[in-house]
Amino acid sequence: MKKIMAVMLSLLACTVLLAGCNTSSESNEEQSLATPILGAVKLIDALLNLGIPYASYIGISGIENPAIVFILSIVMGVALYLIGRGCWKLLVYYIKGVSKAKQHLSI
Question: 90: how many CB neighbours lie within 10 A of its CB?
Answer without folding.
Answer: 14
